[in-house]
Request: fold
Amino acid sequence: VEEVTPAGSLRRGRETVGDLDLLVTGRDNAAIAEHILKFPGIADVLANGEDKVSVKLKNDMQVDIRMLARSAYGAALMYFTGSKEHNVVLRSRAKKHGWTLNEYGLYHGDKLLASKTEQEVYTKLDLPWIPPELRENLGEIEAAEKGELPKLVELGDIRGDLQMHTTASDGHSSIEDMAGAAKQLGYQYMLITDHSKAVTIANGLSEERAAEHIQRIHAARKKVKGIEIWAGTEVDIMGDGTLDYSNELLKQFDIVLASVHSRMNMPVDEMTTRLLRALENPYVRILGHPTGRLILRRDPFLFDTEKVFAAAKKFGVILEVNAAPERLDLSDRHVRLARDRGMKIIISTDAHDPQHFKLMRYGVSTARRGWMEKSGVLNTLPPEELLAHLRPLPR
Reply:
């Protein structure tokens, strides 16, 4: 095997995938197929041909593996990555030239015009290479034609994580252990955001415990060098829009992140009023997982998006993209909406364990699907610049 590349909705970074498409190049298709079929997770072999193996896994996921000649790799990767709608536009574009585009290449009659790389095929179609996350026919072709494709945020741009939990509430690790792991990733800062008292199921902190926790964070800040450790909270937004902590306590935190964890079935107008009231609190600087959804388990709660986004922009409250795979909240659609309104976001993992820091890539992928550039993501900034971009605290 020379190369294995995921294609399809996985490569596009969609929040759910129906099946997996893998493209493989190598020297001996029969040997590669034989090797694939030894995988212990296979429940059923659906197809086993010269250039394709299709299997059903024990977890009920279908996986289609296509073995390709290196010369056709780019065309196949392009064909099997793009959404149906994106590919229809590309084939139509080829047809206007009298060409044919398929998984083997771009052809003029029997003459091969391009196939080795995606860039080669896009270039022949008079387009720049389009990032996989954008290939949904949601304006990316038009933007490419005008030279206006965004330069998307990348995982390597992230300089810190702004939501995480420790053993003080429902996390599994100490402040110091979380700091050590974040430091190993090269992060310059981190925000500890243990739960407030309303989330009893998550061992939420009373005001007294929260005040003590702030002191522990300050002590850890002195102990662990080379990373900024900020004292924060994930304070609950109560049903009437007030916060679960007094302003006297909230002003002691470096950054307050506010989230909804209860009464998610409120009518639209009531939920909108609830969120608007929370955003007015002068200590709220980040709105955590703003729609409360759990993918495939709980629908997002309903509110007037235009009003809430406008209020967040007005007050300088930053919207979070929660990178936990079960959340991805904001969704890619909401990220695009925020971007189009000139708003900035942060991407955080909601880590409850050092291992969760690696989930950041899912949040970055979601932001990329929302056309977000590095300049639109605040935690790509160094610490002092990030703090300067947050809502100013009351004096």
Q: What stands out?
A: The chain has a mean pLDDT of 97. DSSP finds 14 helices and 15 strands in the chain.
